[in-house]
Specification:
about 625 residues; alpha/beta; ABC transporter transmembrane region fold; Rossmann fold; six-stranded mixed beta sheet; four-stranded antiparallel beta sheet; 12 strands; elongated; disordered N terminus; ABC transporter ATP-binding protein
């Protein structure tokens, strides 16, 4: 990139109206011209959000009050020692250098050295303790966030990009960590130093103190003007960072599909658009916040000049006892007097970024978890009598299931047939209580599943989904995930029943073979065999097979049919399958079309009716199912 390009790019950004971000609606579209009072409403809402994020961080810090009190004591000590140095230097100038006498100078120098050593020791320990406090606090926030994620319903994850959630768990919490490690101590030190310096300056010379403070209103006005604009962009920067992370995670996970359809240029364009939005938000956030230290340095230099000029005039004319040493003290104190504001300015980028990240973290922690009702505490062994009683359900506005009713007796196998979007997988989601019905009821053994304990209900179900998911670890550990107390021999037996044992033994390390993330290292069909073995090991009362054999070749499928039949024996089983020969053996076949149950019966009964199912069998038209 040429130097001319570097100079040109910032000016191109100025063409973008930064107010677009300030008045942006939740749907990320530019808003219409605002009502005269709209800006005021938006600003107050933003202030409440940031104040709430700060309050909640303080709740975590309050658990370590004793350690924070120690830090505050060390901050006070270090701040007082910081005042000693400039004062002693002024004394040395007035009492020893100007009169050219050195009697007693050694004692003063020894005190000056001791103050510097004490300052270093106090600073070291206050930083050491504060880092421990910060890391312990971040540990708790990260732990609470992760624990809360495990309690959130499936619909939460269905509506959000996984990359954006990961960005909150990693990037946003790391921003909070960086701020707690450094900014808290600096803020405390700045407040104590400010008060101490002001008191000493007033004691030495009220006139020079007033002269020193003339730049303070300019500093506050400059900070207010800059921060009002910076807050918007730091929040936008965190939001767009989450979008970029989400898009990156999605495209990396789907690289095989991207390359299959030669969509590299498309995903590059999509990333470029999102990355451009992040660049613009980051540019304006850093540009405005970058003004702060520059403005503060200018005002500092202005303050030094004013003190030197006014103090020099007063010293020459011997006004109010002002001496050269006192001017030196005031110049040094003036630097330290504005240091708190300088520290805040230098830390402001991290502070704003951390608060924006904290808002995003606490937004997830405020999501309502899966909660049991007062009645939802029934725990009992399932017998397997399942009944859908006039069940209706919709994910959003459009209904997915409409007044669906059927009953399955213990030990029966029911298969679902229907086009994509007919509601087959939705029935499974409702049965496992990933979602709750909008109308009607689902009962197991006569008890509404909404009155059953979720964890107890799911622990008695075995689920094999179309998209098999394996964790990073050994094959042995992945199968044992179905029942953590299972022995190695029980794992081997489950793998044999699922016809996975033979291919596992051919692997270099057998059951100790380590899989990469999401089962990388074995084929899709082999992953599903491992998933079936995991369900077998769980020994569930209810078995759910959602396209469980969709990625298994015909020969392998035939080999595991007997194992599946043995698994289904004595258990209520729900099967969604694209292959008609898998469906034919079911005790009941339910035909779903557009969310309605149109046909129900055994294979023979449905063939005699000569309806939709009959046409599927006669033509073997799988497109009608898909």
């Amino acid at each position: 990139m040429s130097f001319k390009t570097i100079l040109k790019e910032p000016f191109e950004y100025k063409k973008i109206d930064w107010r677009h971000y300030r008045h942006k609606q939740k749907d990320n579209q530019p808003s219409k011209p605002a009502h005269p009072h709209a800006a005021r409403v938006g600003k107050s809402q933003k202030a409440r959000d940031w104040k709430e994020a700060t309050r909640r961080i303080l709740v975590y810090l309050r658990k370590r009050q004793s350690a924070i009190f120690v830090v505050m004591a060390l901050v006070i000590i270090s701040s007082l020692l910081m005042l000693v140095g400039p004062f002693l230097i002024g004394v040395i100038i007035d009492n020893y250098i100007i009169p050219m006498t050195f009697d007693g100078l050694g004692t003063i120098l020894l005190l000056l050295f001791a103050s510097f050593v004490g300052l270093s020791i106090a600073t070291f320990f206050q930083n050491f303790i504060m880092v421990r406090i910060a890391q312990a606090t971040i540990y708790e926030i990260r732990r609470d966030l992760f624990n809360h994620l495990q309690q959130l319903p499936i619909r939460f994850f269905d509506k959000r990009q996984h990359g954006d959630i990961m960005s909150r768990v990693t990037n946003d919490i790391e921003n909070i960590s960086a701020t707690l490690n450094s900014s808290i101590v600096q803020i405390l030190s700045s407040v104590v130093t400010f008060i101490g310096i002001l008191a000493v300056m007033l004691w030495l010379s009220p006139i020079l103190t007033i002269v020193t403070m003339t730049v303070i209103p300019l500093m506050f006005y400059g900070l207010k003007w800059i921060t009002k604009r910076t807050q918007v962009f730091f929040k936008e920067q965190q939001r767009t960072l989450g979008i970029v992370n989400g898009y990156s995670e999605e495209t990396i996970a789907g690289q095989q599909m991207v390359k299959t359809f030669s969509r590299e240029d498309t995903v590059i364009d999509g990333f470029t658009q999102r990355n451009e939005a992040l660049k613009v938000a980051g540019f304006w956030a850093q540009t405005y916040s970058g003004f702060i230290p520059k403005v503060m340095n200018v005002l500092n230099n202005l303050s030094f000049a004013v003190i030197a000029f006014v103090g020099g005039v007063m010293a020459v004319n011997q006004v109010a006892g002002v001496t050269v040493g006192m001017i030196v003290i005031f110049v040094e104190y003036a630097r330290q007097f504005t240091r708190p504001l300088n520290d805040l300015a230098n830390q402001f980028n991290a502070l704003l970024s951390a608060l924006a990240g904290a808002e995003r973290v606490f937004e997830i922690m405020d999501q309502k978890p899966e909660e049991e009702t007062e009645e939802g505490s029934v725990q009992s062994d399932l017998q397997g009598h399942v009944a859908f009683e006039r069940v209706s359900f919709s994910y959003a506005q459009s209904p997915i299931l409409k007044d669906v009713s059927f009953s399955v007796m213990p030990g029966e196998t029911v298969a679902f047939v229907g086009p994509t979007g007919a509601g087959k997988t939705t029935i499974i989601n409702l049965l496992t209580r990933f979602y709750d019905v909008n109308q009607g009821a689902i009962t197991i053994d006569g008890v509404d599943i909404r009155n059953r304990n979720r964890a107890d209900l799911r622990s008695q179900m075995g689920v094999v989904l179309q998209d098999s998911f394996l964790f990073q670890g050994t094959i042995l550990d992945n199968i044992r995930y179905g029942r953590l107390t299972a022995t190695d021999e029980e794992v081997y037996e489950a793998a044999k029943l699922a016809n996975a044992h033979s291919f596992i033994k051919r692997l270099p390390k057998g059951y100790k073979t380590a899989l990469k993330q999401d089962g990388g290292g074995i084929s899709q069909g082999q992953r599903q065999l491992v998933s079936i073995a995991r369900a077998l090991l769980a020994d569930p009362k209810l078995l759910i097979l959602d396209e469980a054999t969709s990625s298994i070749d015909t020969v392998t499928e035939m080999k595991i049919q007997e194992a599946l039949k043995r698994l289904m024996h004595g258990r209520t089983s729900f099967v969604i399958a694209h292959r008609l020969n898998t469906i034919e053996a079911a005790d009941k076949i339910l035909v779903l079309q557009a969310g309605e149950l149109t046909e129900m019966g055994s294979h023979r009964e449905l063939m005699e009716k000569k309806g939709f199912y009959y046409e599927l069998q006669r033509t073997k038209n799988m497109d009608a199912i898909l």
